Amino acid sequence: MGAQVTPLRIANAAQSVRHVFIRDLLLNAHIGVHRHEKGRSQPVRINI
Question: How far is CA 26 from CA 4, 22, 23, 42, 46, in A?
Answer without folding.
Answer: 33, 10, 9, 10, 6
